[in-house]
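AGZA family xanthine/uracil permease-like MFS transporter (Amycolatopsis echigonensis), 480 aa
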Amino acid sequence: MTQVRLDEAVTSAPGPQRKSIVERLFELRARNTTVGREVRGGLTTFVAMAYIVLLNPLILGASADITGAKLSAAQVTTATALAAAVMTVLMGLVGNAPLALAAGLGINGIVAFQMAPSMTWAQAFGLVVLEGVCIVLMAVSGVRERIMNAIPGPLKTAITVGIGLYIALVGLVSAGFVTRTPDAAHTTVPVRLGLGGHLHGLPIAVFCFGLLLMTVLMARKVPGAVLISIAAATVLAVVLHDGFGVGDWGLTTPTLPDSVVAAPDFGLLGHIDLFGGFAKAGALTATIFLFTLVLSGFFDAMGTITSVSAEAGLSENGRVPRMGRILFVDGAGAIAGGLTGSSPNTVFLESAAGVGEGARTGLASVVTGLLFGATLLFTPIAGIVPAQAAAPALVVIGGMMVAQCRNIPWNDPDYTIPVFLTVALIPFTYSITNGVGAGLIAFVLIKTFRGKWREAGWILTVLALVFTVYFGIDVVKAIL
C-alpha cells in the first residue's frame, strides 16, 4: 500500500514549470516584480519624460545653422519620438534595465547653439554620430565599464545624491515653483520662489496638489501612487484650463486636442555629413565639439545609470548587471540621435520616476518605448499632461535618491570635499558631468598630497587630467 502511494505521489508531482517568454527575457521573478508593476513603471516614466517630444523641437528649432537654415518642428518632433522609441525598446530587450532614452537636455543645446552656427545641420548631426561611435567603441572594448568600476563607492553614492537634488530642482523649475531671477535685478541670488518671491496662479496650485497627493499615497504605500497622482493632477489641470480658462501653463497646455492624430515627417532621417564639420568649422573647433559631446554623453549617462540602478536595487557590490550591454545601447543612442536628427539620445533621469513606481526590469522600458512609438501618430495626446502634473514625480523621487547620503562616510577626509563638490555642483551647474569631474579632481589631489596616490589609481588620475582640460578648454583652445 505504501509503495502504491509513493508511486502515485511521484506520478502526480508537478514537473518543472516552463517559463514564459516574458519571464525568460526579463527575469521578473528574480527581480521580485510583476508584469503589472513593470507596465505601471513604464507608463510613469513615459508620462514623466514625454515633454521631450515637445521641448526638443523648440530647442533645436530656435537656432539656425551656418547657412541660415532652421529645422522643421514637425521633422524634429518625429525624429525625437522615433529615436526615443527605438532606443528605449532596445535598452529593455538588450540591457534588461528600467532605463529610458531620449534626446538629452543640455547636450541638445550644445548641438543647437554652439555647433550649428559653425556648420550645417547635416555636419552637426554627423559629429553626433561620431560621438556615438566613440562611446560604443569604449563600451565594446570594456574601457567604459572599467572607468565606472574604478570610481570609489562613496563617489558613486555622491553622484546618486547629486542627481536626486538635480531632478528635484528640475521638477521645481519646470513647474514654476522655483524661477530664475531676472538678470536686470543685478542681484547675486540666481533663483527665487515663484514669481517675485511668491507663489502665484492656479497652475502652481495643481503642482502643490499633485505633490501632496503623491507624498501621502507613497507614505501609505498605495500601489501606483506616482501614476495616480499624475493622472489626478492632469484631470484637475484640464478642468481648470478648459472649464475655467486658466492659462500660463508653460510648454504644455492641458487641453483636450481637436484631433488626436498627427502624421509623422521623416525628413531628417539619415540627413548627415560625417566629416564635413571638420572642414566647415575647422579641425580644432570640430575636435573640441566632439570632445565635449563624448565627455558629456559619457559621464551624464554613467551618473544616471549608476544612480537609477541603485535606486532600483539592481546594483551588486556597486556594480550593475549587464552593464556592458547597457553602456553599448547608451552609446548607440547617440548614433541614433545623429541618424534621426534628434541630437544625442541618452539615458533619462526621469527613469527614476518609473523605478519609484516599481519598475525593475527592461519590460518597463519596452512599455515606455512603445508609448514613444505611439506618439509618432498621436503627438497631440503627449501634450495633454502639463509640467505641473508630472513635476511632482521628479521632486518626490529626487528626495528618495537623496536619502542615499546616509551611506557616505562624511568623517573620512579623503571623501568629504570630493563628495560635497559632486553633490553640490551637479544641481548648481545643471550638469552631471561638471559634478563628476570636480569630485574626481578633488579626490585625486587629496590622495596625491596625502601620499596615497597609488590608491587613486592610474585610471582616475588620467580622468582627473582629462577633466582639467575639460574645465579649462577655453584656455587650451587659446593656446592651440
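The first strand starts at residue 101 and ends at 103. Residues 1-13 have pLDDT under 50 and may be disordered. ok done for today
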